[in-house]
Design brief:
The chain has 458 residues and is an alpha+beta fold. The protein is 21% helix and 41% strand. Helix 1 runs parallel beside helix 2 and helix 3 packs parallel to helix 4. The protein is globular, with a radius of gyration of 24 Å. 47% of the residues are buried.
């Protein structure tokens, strides 16, 4: 296979050409209420060719590799047609030529656990939720695991074979009293094995209890509050509201974005440090190399409150005169790699959680992310559960807590950062364009923010 790939690349007549081949083995299990809704195992083989000529890309994906040279010629013809019209300049930042074979490193390979055992374990979790309380009317479980072997080669001479494992599980208890429906989810996931799935019983019982308790909770009163975000919600906030703005392909050709994301701009207080990393062991979104064969790394985005970096592919880095960050990622062989996050997080600070609550006469402790959306600098997030803070103490559970605001203002209003960073994996993933759900992870310590607008009853 290697000789076939190298011969096909040698025939390319463009500025740059690459081939990516992918073999995958995937298991998916889902429950809806008492019903085992699906239980599938599938294997897939496919690949793509990407060619660059005069600043224009040609791309073709395929499942039949019997005539790889023809696939290369097709991608090159596409690039020539568009590149001749565009007559631009191909701008790829330099990257080391790599020859590597990256073997799978897992603690418990999901492929070694039988499909029957996986179904039995998830079925046990499902029964635990359905039997927990009469108010638990339904459940939802989604589990998957996937093994992939990816072969990447380019016309510069890089040749990498890389094995990857990915796994995610979302287990949701759904409660109802006839007029109100609430839910709470237990999540697990990772890149180093099945061992994260067993022993979730206590977390699932907690989710059931909260789903039931939310039925009796009062809606929050809308207004401005000092808010403490738990690591889960803070991680989702920094991923969605800030992380996407750091993806340089959205910045390189957009003058307004260039102004907003000018390096050296103050984004927050000196205690704020934000990173995106592809080398956090065991988490989703990490690998040794990205989908352009560039080594993943830990990329500083905000340091001491100042914007210091962004996430680059080779093309975005070339256009902006910066270095690739190992952030070019593709959902699968049907797509070309684009700038994407990996593990995005706020670095831990020095404040204990107890000290963050002190001194708040009336505030909100927001826990977990139920949903949200962003539009440029503006964001809206809904907490999965929330509690009032009264006179420096956690008080009653409240519901319908939605946080809205401007990213720049909110980051600058961060008052304290906890000493308890946590990274959260789940069965979800990041969406950008048509490439969703891409494996990612996010996290944070607890963070305290002043003057947060909370939607609720008046």
């Amino acid at each position: 296979m290697k000789e076939t790939i190298l011969r096909a690349l040698a025939e390319s007549d463009v500025d740059y050409c690459e081939i990516r081949l992918e073999e995958s083995d995937r298991t998916m299990i889902s429950f809806r209420g008492p019903v085992l809704e699906s239980c599938d195992r599938s294997a897939e083989l496919g690949g793509n060719v990407r060619a660059l000529y005069k600043g224009a890309w040609g791309f073709t994906s395929f499942n039949d590799m019997s005539d790889l040279p023809e696939k290369v010629r097709l991608a090159c013809r596409q690039a020539h047609i568009t590149g001749t019209l565009k007559n631009g300049r191909s701008q790829l930042a330099p990257a080391p030529i790599v020859h590597d074979n990256v073997a799978l490193e897992v603690i418990q390979d999901p492929r070694d656990v039988s499909l029957a055992d996986k179904v039995a374990l998830l079925g046990k979790y499902n029964k635990l939720m359905l039997d927990y309380h009469e108010a638990i009317k339904s459940t939802s479980i989604y589990y998957f695991d996937e093994y992939r072997q990816i072969t990447f080669a380019n016309s510069a001479g890089t040749y990498i074979v890389q094995e990857k494992s990915d796994l995610g599980c979302n287990i949701t208890a759904i409660a109802s009293n006839g007029t109100l429906t609430t839910q709470r989810t237990t999540s697990a996931g990772g890149s180093n094995g099945f061992q994260v799935v067993p022993r979730l019983e206590d977390a699932i019982k907690k989710s059931c209890r909260i789903a039931v308790d939310l039925l009796a909770a009062e809606p929050v009163k809308g207004g401005q509050y000092t808010v403490i975000l738990d690591p889960d919600l803070a991680g989702v906030f920094i991923h969605e509201a800030f992380g996407h703005l750091s993806e340089a392909d959205e910045v390189a050709d957009n003058e307004n974005m260039k102004k907003l994301m000018t390096l050296g701009t103050r984004f927050g207080p000196e205690i704020l440090n934000v990173y995106d990393s592809g080398i956090e062991p065991g988490h989703r979104g990490v690998a040794k190399y990205d989908d352009e064969g560039v080594a993943m790394q830990r990329t500083p985005l905000i340091e001491n409150g100042i914007l210091v970096g962004r996430l680059h592919s080779r093309e975005s880095a070339g256009k902006m005169g910066e270095k690739p960050t190992g952030s070019a990622r593709a959902l699968n062989y049907n797509f070309p790699p684009i700038c994407r996050m990996r593990v995005t997080y706020i670095e831990q600070g020095q404040t204990a959680f107890e000290d963050m609550i002190k001194g708040i006469p009336l505030g909100i402790y927001a826990v977990g992310a139920y949903g949200g959306e962003t539009n440029g600098e503006m964001f809206t997030f809904t907490a999965a559960e929330a509690y009032m803070i009264r006179d420096g103490n956690i008080a009653e559970l409240v519901r319908d807590v939605t946080l809205t605001g401007n990213l720049m203002t909110t980051l600058k209003n961060i008052e304290m950062i906890g000493n308890d960073k946590y990274l959260q994996d789940s069965a979800g993933g990041c969406g950008k364009g048509a490439q969703v759900p891409l494996p990612t992870c996010e996290g944070s310590p607890h963070i305290r923010i002043k003057n947060v607008t909370i939607g609720g009853v008046k």
